[in-house]
Each structure stands twice: as structure tokens, then as C-alpha cells.
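Inputs:
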Amino acid sequence: MVGIALDVMGGDYAPQEVLKGAQEALKASKGIFLYLVGTQEALSEFPGHERVSKVVASQWVKMDEAPSEALRRKLDSSIRRAFELVKKGKAQAVVSAGNSGATYACALFTLGRISGVMRPAIATVLPTLKNPAVLIDAGANVDCKPAHLLQFAFMGSLFAERILGIQNPRVGLLSIGEEGGKGNFLVKRAHALLSESPLNYIGNIEGRHIYLGEAEVIVCDGFVGNICLKVSEGVAEAVAEMLKAEVKKDPLAILGFSLARRALKRFRKRTDWREHGGAPLLGVNGVVIIGHGRSDARAIKNAILVAQKFVETGLTERLGKSLHQKSKSLKENQAIQ
Amino acid sequence: MVGIALDVMGGDYAPQEVLKGAQEALKASKGIFLYLVGTQEALSEFPGHERVSKVVASQWVKMDEAPSEALRRKLDSSIRRAFELVKKGKAQAVVSAGNSGATYACALFTLGRISGVMRPAIATVLPTLKNPAVLIDAGANVDCKPAHLLQFAFMGSLFAERILGIQNPRVGLLSIGEEGGKGNFLVKRAHALLSESPLNYIGNIEGRHIYLGEAEVIVCDGFVGNICLKVSEGVAEAVAEMLKAEVKKDPLAILGFSLARRALKRFRKRTDWREHGGAPLLGVNGVVIIGHGRSDARAIKNAILVAQKFVETGLTERLGKSLHQKSKSLKENQAIQ
């Protein structure tokens, strides 16, 4: 049985959608035990369940609150209480769709980093025309040094191997040209480090090639990574809106699209981020899954199932061991960061 | 009559598509005179025309060549000869879909910057659900300082006003959260400068909101801007591929899509970057339009027409005057860059 602490107060549609997601997850998997952490009022709506324990917290962190402030002042926040359950050994994972900065800060403060890791990073799985790909860092570290990017590449590779099941994943460095000499100051130096690493590094990868599936691990700083994800969402949404507007003008097109509705449904499922659940925070001492702020019940359910899989594969322990083995090269890199 | 120097050797499909584009532009507009700059062999294919002059260059810059090397060694390259035509006063604009780094370097070297401009920047027009928006910088400057971003905002605003016809355009700073405190080191400091500027600055804008049309000017450094554009292209292409794959599996959907083909065609036209022509390099002493590397004849034609409009509206002169008026605040910013 995997114990998972769920931050009931986190996300744009909390607590209703989060609680619904919890119920769906309990139905979908018999192997989880949920600690639902939230205010008395929020938890009162949830019916009793043999694999659920309610943990009351009097506070919660808002989506736009400054993480450091929240960590310092809100000692009884739901996200903090969730992490304490892991710290005490009751739960083995935290899932939250709330303020991701606060989740990151709380994870660092409560669980700490795996020995040797400089900066934990968020790994997001993207659908592509070939294999799924992992983009790391998706937003935890906005200002990075070259050695941080090298570590992201190590962690992302292990994640792609163990969780996505991809042998010897190709690692690409997100940049603005394919040649190694192209990019900004950070990327040029990271390219030099990656070229000398034992990873399956294929060089720079351009934004256009991410979704063609030309690499299974895409490395970038958290500022660029987060913009990359948000722009992708925006394009997909805008394309859908523009298409809908053109179809609406034309009765034949309306009929045509209704004939194609089964294909459209399959397509939507394939491209919907909610199918892929949350994004793990790699490099902390424990399993932390960060959900999308706009998570609905289905996204929460999938994030919980990802957390279960993560605990069962023991990736955190493996990350620790693997990074330890590579400690020599990491120390060398720290020296030149 | 607007004289335009066209780099016939520039672009992935040069010279054939570039020459075809030239022919289409000559048909579409009676107000242009084209200087076609390329090798003897490339130009021999083009029939004589009363509004065309052929200018022979013995060399050209390849797409992946290092710009500085190309500038130094290839003294008789087509891009260099094109700029010399503007320098000599024969042509008033340069259009090239070739190596954009070399075009940038050549523009700086031959034409120089408008007085007061620290860094010329590429302005790209994006379709959105509302007004079109201009993203600046789209790739000229990969490492920027806060004061550079402030200048990009000034140039982008003037461009949106004069070329896109948008009154008092809203300026957004591309970042990873809407609150002013969010972003990397560069963006946080640029936010402070923009907040004090006379521009219609609406604060940070997230990647997801670009295509919803929440700002008409989107400011970022050239590394982030270029990735943003390439990711957008990639998402649109991948979405189209995935949709096609799902439709192909289902005879009803194939029928449906054939009924909707007129709506699909209008949709494609609306989202196709080739419709928007090239992107101007703002801040140099002259009109320079940088075409997409994958430009076909239609894209080249539109880039030429954009160049004509640019010359006719006298934007370069206006940019010079406008930035001169703002020189006081710019000097202050230079002091704190």
C-alpha cells in the first residue's frame, strides 16, 4: 500500500475538483492510501473511506502568494502538513496542484535534497509524434548555471529510462540553432559540459523539434522551460478556437466535424495534458508530484496514480545511488560552475 | 517607386523559390523595383523585366555559417552586396531569408544603428485570437540587459502603432507568472524599468496568453523569443500531424474533413506564418526584412510587400525621431544597465 498525502487546498478548482479526483483515484487503484490534507470545512464534504485519513490544517497557501513568506508565516498550511506526513514516514509521496513555488520551497525545507543534487528540478512529460519526452526543468529554477543543466540532464535521463521505459534516451539541449556554437551564454557552456558527459547527448535541439520527438530528454533552465510549456498550451488552445470559429461559419463544415467526432475525441485524448498527470520534482528526498494549477478531477486522479508508480519503482532511491556514482564528474562540474 | 535589394541566395529553398517570389511580388505591386542579388548562374534563370536589375555576386553565406566569419571573409557575398545597394542609396530596403545572424551582422556593419539604439532587434508579427501582436526580440540578441528590453518595448510599440495600426498598444513582458515579482533576474529588473516608462505597460504576460491576444507588444530577450516562435511552429505542426493520423483511421472522419475543407483552408490561411511575410530588424539605419529560413515563393512575396510598406510609412525615420525624444530616459537607463 502506497501512502499519498494530497493537498486538498491546492489548485484553481480546489477543493471540489481535488476531492473528486481523490475519489476517482481510490476507485482506479486499490494500492493507495490517501491522506487528505485541508481545512475542516473542505474535508467535511468527503465521505468516509477505509483507505482515507483526513488531516486537518487551518491554513492554505494561495496561488499567487510569495513562497518564502508562505513558508515562514503559515506554519499550519495544508501543503506544509502534507510534507510533514512524508517526513514522519506516514506517507511516501506528496501531490499538490497548488502554488508550485511554495511546494518547491516546502519540499526543500522539509525533505531536503538528495546528496549531491545542487538544484531539484521539475520534469514534465510531453506528448510527441514518437516517444513521450521529458522536459526538465519546467519551472523550479529560473536562473541557472551550466552545471545545473548538466544535473537536470542526468536526472531527466534516469526518469526517462525508469518511468517512461526508454532505453538509452537521447538528451537534447534546448537552444536556438542545432549547431553547438549557437545559443546564449548559459547554453553554450552547458553544451560543453554535456558533450563530455557519459549521457546519450545529441546536441542542441530547436523548439520546433521537441514535438517531432527528436529527443526523449529536453534540458533547459526553468524560465525557458516554463515558457515553452505555457506557449505550447496557448498555441494548442488558440488553434482549437480559430478552427472552431471557421467551422461555425460553414454548415457543411459543421456536418463534417460531427461525422469526425470520434476521431476528434481520440485526438483530444492524445494531446490533453490532463492525461499525463502531474510533474515530479526530481532531486528531493522523497516523491513530490506537482499538478497543473488548472487541474480538474481527472488531472488530480492521474497525478495520484503517477505518485504511486513513482514510489513503487523506487526512483528516488535510484536517483540517489546513480548521482552518487557520478559524484566524481559532478564535483568536477561544481568546480567550474 | 521603392527599390528593394533581394538576396536571391538566402533561404532553404533558394534560389528557385526566392526568384518565384520575386516574380509574384512584381505582379502584386507596381510600386516596387527589385535588385536581384545572386550568382550569375542563379540569376540567369530569371527573365528580363523593366522593374528588375540583376546584381552579380560571386559568393553567398550558407545557413549554418558563422556570421562573423562570413562577414570577414566573403567580401563578395550576395547579402553584403544587397546591403551595399542600400548604403549607396540605390535601394531602400534589404530582404533576405538567408542566415539571419549574417544578415544582422551585415546590417550593423553596413548601415549602422539608429542614434541612441543599443541593440537592434527582430520584430515578428504573430496571429492571435484578437489583434495581431508583435514579439520583439525574436532572435537577434541572445544575452540581454534590462535596458535592452526597455528599448525593444519602445521599438515594438512604435511598430505596432505605425505598421499594424494599433492605437496605444498594450506592452507585456514575457515571463512565467503574471505578478511583477515573478521571473528570472533579467525580467524582474526589466519589469521595474517598464513600470516607470511612458509605455502602455500591462505587466508580465504568460506564454499561454500570447495567442489569446492579451497584449499587442510582447517583449523578451532573443533567446526566449526565438524558442517561443519555434515551439509555436512545432506545436502547430505536431497537432496537425496527430489530427491527420486520427482522421485517417476512420472513414467517417475522412468524409467529414472533406466536407469541411473550405473551412479548413480558411483556417490554414489564418494561421500560416507565410501570410505574414518577413520580420523587420528594428533599430538599424535602413529597412531590413528577415524572412523565415523555410520561406517559399509566397513567403518571399509577402516579405517584399512588407518591405515596401515599411519604406512607404517611413518607420525607420520615425523610430529615430521617437527614440531621440526619449533619449533622456534612455540615457538614464543606460546608466543602470
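Residues 1-117+283-337 of chain A form a domain with the Isopropylmalate Dehydrogenase fold (CATH 3.40.718.10). Flag for discussion at group meeting.
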